[in-house]
Design goal:
Length: about 375
């Protein structure tokens, strides 16, 4: 596969790629932890936490809103991919019952544009979601904490370009079809964010599988020739590990195909209405579950912030007083004063008993 520089030593490769069992276990543990916290916060039997299935549907519904937002802003590939990756990663370390997805969604967009150096107006983003500007900015740090401050994301776009460049060297491939093939492969990768493909497979594998799937539709080149042209074997024949390679590509390709189907399904008007109806039920159910101390729109959050500001100001005043006392102590030591510190501002007092020495008499006149 194409070797993306630095990816094997990256946090992306070491911390954000999972097996299917590990990913399922992580989400199950998050859901159970959130349910326990809700029960401790609220003793009311009327408050029922979301099940793991309900939480997944809620997460998918709001994730679909990210696709709409990215299409509206016409983000480039890298920004769109980073937005979706941040969303998936954040809700792998935080539960949707702890952090309101209606606030996290615009925050993820805003943070991803910063990470990819693509300017977006925060006030305009807040207006689009009918939120206050400060609610987005105050959620930036919690989102980064959920991402473990690991903001570097590797995408399949670069490997796709490298594979296409290798295919251009193959005389059997019509050069005019490769640009279309590259564009369709990138769209297929973007559709794959409806699934968890980016959490299972490295970008190079997703890229090659996307080209393989598009090639099956467009019939640009024989599949065997495509794989041999793209895969750098270091002199070793592809046939030496062909079965294992094709099995992995089929697995990834199946995930890409599922993403393409989901993209079409979620785009249908019938599905939109069903999802909106289900989302209203889930939003109504999730409101009492949310921790008010993690939501900038609540009075509890504002009071907590005021208390924190008062404590911080008191700590600053205490530190300032201690620094002033240390400076006064240094001045007394410098001026040789042994008077104890009574807590009052240090002043230099006049010595009334001081008598200057008389001037020495002038030398006698020898002339």
């Amino acid at each position: 596969f194409v070797e993306v520089p630095g990816i094997k030593d990256s946090t992306h490769f070491r911390f954000w790629l999972f097996t299917k069992d590990k990913l399922k276990e992580t989400r199950k543990r998050l859901n159970q932890g959130a349910q326990e916290r809700i029960k401790k916060r609220n003793n009311s039997a009327d408050i029922k936490p979301l099940s793991a299935k309900e939480e997944r549907h809620m997460r998918l519904y709001f994730h679909n809103q990210l696709f709409a937002a990215c299409a509206r802003y016409r983000f480039p590939f890298d920004v769109t991919a980073t937005v979706h990756t941040f969303w998936k990663r954040f809700y792998l370390s935080r539960s949707i019952m702890d952090f309101d997805p209606r606030l996290i969604l615009p925050t993820v967009i805003y943070l991803a544009t910063k990470a990819e150096e693509c300017h977006i107006n925060c006030e305009e983003l807040a207006r689009m979601y009918k939120l206050k500007n400060e609610w987005i900015t105050k959620n930036e740090v919690p989102v980064m904490e959920g991402l473990n401050f690991q903001l570097k994301v590797y995408h399949a776009k670069r490997p796709i370009k490298e594979y296409v460049a290798r295919l251009r060297k193959n005389p059997l491939v019509p050069d005019g079809n490769l640009d279309k093939m590259e564009k369709l492969a990138q769209q297929l990768v973007l559709d794959s964010y409806f699934t968890d493909a980016c959490l299972y497979y490295p970008p190079a594998q997703i890229a090659l599988a996307s080209l393989m799937m598009i090639n099956r539709k467009e019939k640009v080149i024989e599949e065997q020739s495509l794989i041999e042209s793209c895969v750098n074997t270091g002199g070793e024949k592809v046939s030496a590990y062909e079965e294992k390679l094709k099995r992995r590509l089929e697995e990834v390709g199946g995930m890409l195909k599922k993403g393409e189907e989901l993209a079409k399904t979620w785009a249908s008007e019938k599905k939109k209405k069903l999802n909106e109806a289900a989302a209203k039920i889930y939003v109504k159910k999730i409101k009492p579950c949310l921790d008010p101390l993690l939501n900038p729109s609540t009075e509890e959050y504002k009071k907590q912030e005021e208390d924190n500001n008062k404590e911080a100001e008191a700590a600053r005043m205490k530190k300032r007083k201690r620094r002033r006392q240390e400076e006064e102590a240094r001045e007394r030591k410098l001026l040789g004063s042994d008077e104890p510190d009574d807590g009052q501002p240090f002043t230099i007092k006049r010595n009334k008993s001081f008598k200057p020495k008389p001037r020495p008499s002038p030398p006698p006149d020898l002339m």
